[in-house]
Specification:
Layout: H1 4-14, E1 16-19, H2 24-39, E2 46-47, E3 57-59, H3 67-74, H4 77-86, E4 92-100, E5 110-113, H5 115-121, E6 129-135, E7 146-148, E8 161-164, E9 172-175, E10 185-186, E11 194-198, E12 203-205, E13 215-222, H6 244-255, H7 258-265, H8 269-279
Helix pairs in contact: 1-4
Length: about 280
């Protein structure tokens, strides 16, 4: 059996690693979580709509009624021990959480990018962290799987180009040009497979011709015990328990955070268009 240390070394070397939990109960939990999200999909905020308005994400899922089931999966020993090994037991917290899905027959491509590219493009510093993708159903090459470029994290964060989904300027992606197809490795697996990839690992995905390819994605970073998450809210800790002073401080700071205000603005399509047309005119 491969040890958590060996898995962590593979991650550090290649910028990603696929974990295949052997416990059937874990896989059943992942399948059940997908069923729960599908049945309550209309209750979630969406993001990253294509030119036709079809979204690709359900966002902020850790603040849903499924929170305990989600944490039960993310903190399963098969994942928890590897993540702690990668970060050498440093305190970690979630920056955001979402469900990624495909609409069969719709344009649901993700352009080649690094997660840290979004931070750089928005005037923030790249962060030391990783994304965790949990397959909530089987993912084959026909489902628009994630594709990564091994070792690409070693190049640091690169400059990205902003690509608008439509002339309305509501949603956009960042993209990297000139990357040959043979550089990418398609990541497939069965329900319950877990992919960890570095914030600077270049990745993309294509459209699905078979299924919705439901995956849960969360991002983890080193905690400075001060910063808020990507929604402008107090982040959920992953491997530590915050003190009451930290909890109170973050809740107060959250009330005046521009990120939180922006999340409120984005509930209105017309307001979002107005703000972005000013910002990107």
């Amino acid at each position: 059996m491969i040890s958590p240390k060996d898995v962590a070394l593979e991650f550090e070397k290649r910028g990603f690693v696929l974990i295949e939990p052997s416990k059937q109960c874990f896989r059943r939990k992942c399948g059940s979580l997908k069923d729960g999200f599908v049945s309550s999909k209309e209750n979630f905020r969406t993001a990253f709509a294509n030119e036709g308005g079809t979204p690709r994400h359900l966002i902020n899922i850790l603040r849903s009624d499924n929170k305990n089931s989600i944490l039960d999966i993310l903190k399963d020993s098969s994942i928890f021990e590897v993540v702690n090994e990668i970060f050498m037991e440093i305190d970690l917290e979630f920056t955001h959480s979402k469900i990624s899905f495909k609409t069969v027959g719709a344009n649901s491509d993700w352009l080649s990018h690094q997660d840290n590219g979004y931070r750089l493009a928005n005037g923030n510093k790249p962060r030391a962290g990783l994304a965790m993708m949990v397959f909530l159903e089987d993912v084959t090459v026909k489902d628009g799987p994630l594709e990564v470029i091994p070792y690409s994290h070693k190049n640091g964060t690169l400059e990205h180009k902003r690509i608008w989904a439509s002339s309305e300027k509501v949603d956009y992606q960042l993209g990297l040009d000139g990357l040959p197809d043979h550089s990418f490795t398609k990541i497939t697996g069965s329900v319950g497979s877990v992919l960890l990839f570095h914030n600077d690992t270049i990745h993309r995905s294509g459209a699905s011709t078979r299924s919705s390819r439901y995956c849960m994605i969360v991002e983890l970073r080193h905690s400075d015990h001060k910063s808020l998450d990507d929604y402008g809210l107090p982040p959920f800790p992953y491997n530590y328990s915050p003190g009451w002073i930290e909890i109170i401080s973050k809740n107060i700071r959250s009330l005046f955070n521009t990120g939180r205000i922006w999340m409120i603005v984005k509930r209105s399509k017309s307001l979002t268009k107005w703000v972005r047309r000013i910002a990107f005119r």
